[in-house]
């Protein structure tokens, strides 16, 4: 790993030592890497018809024509695909909003892109509010992504596949990690972008969190809307976020990954025995200038340790100058295995700013 020549404080020396050991263990196949993308908005609603706009989509289409099509651009999506190809993570997760208006034609476009990105075995998707913009037949929209959302055979919950994506929560085991997908995607009123899980999904989610904890797996909960109310405005909130927070306080999770806010964030959710890291990814295709809102995605390297788990997190951020993704901030999280989804008090964040074009 190449770093800038800066005076090394003791904490930084420890950080670099950890990274070197972590990279060596990755070469020894001890680390399971997960790339986390969100809010790509990669489709173009060019085949829209007047009858498609006799609802909330009229406002969304106007926003796309005037602004959004200039902000979420295919050039960055292409650079993202190149970067992922070179990085070759063990798995890719997408926490919603592949489309703008959730049109059937957009869902077909996104489905074709997912097939190009990887097989359903290697890519996991949960939908976002833009993917369920208005009520639309399931078979014409989200069902097209079902192979990327469904549970592994034998790990299905009691949910049935059908309208509204009720196959959630999904359960997919990959190496030491279990990916638990929850859908908060629900049609909302004009000028709102709220989401909800619903009582039935929350009940099933509690069972899944409890069972996978007993199995000693690293639980990654995937959801589009952030579970913490302070992270998003009232009109864009998760309406039953308090119920989800209560569930996580009871059963825990090793990490919660989300999108929706279109900015990079790391927060911690107390759960009695520690805190659960809650990581929000920005849009992976945005041309925004501000660093927290510029196109980026996360890479998490998860490995077991003598005391539980260690996670090395890296931001891959788009460089407007180099027109490619470069390494941004990095930090390490220790997750004790003896407690339910808690994070060690000795979390060691470190901002490592790469030179332009530097690859992870």
**Tell me, what's the shape?**
globular
Strand order of the largest sheet: 3-2-1-10-11-12-13
Major beta-sheet overview: 7 strands, mixed
Mean pLDDT: 84
Discrete helix count:
7
| Rg from Cα | 20 Å
CATH homologous superfamily caption? Metallo-dependent phosphatases
Write down the CATH topology: Purple Acid Phosphatase, chain A, domain 2
Q: In what range is the share of β-strand residues?
A: 15-25%
Helix content: 25-40%
Number of domains: 1
CATH class: Alpha Beta
| CATH architecture label | 4-Layer Sandwich
End-to-end Cα distance: 7 Å
The assigned structural class equals: alpha/beta
- Please, what is the oligomeric state? single chain
Order of helices and strands: HEHHEHEHEEHEHEEEEEEE
Flag low-confidence runs: 1-18, 338-360
Structure description:
The protein is of the alpha/beta class. The chain is 26% helix and 23% strand. The chain is built from seven helices and 13 strands. Helix 6 runs parallel beside helix 7. It is globular and about 60 Å long. The relative contact order is 0.14. The model is unreliable at 1-18 and 338-360 (pLDDT under 50).
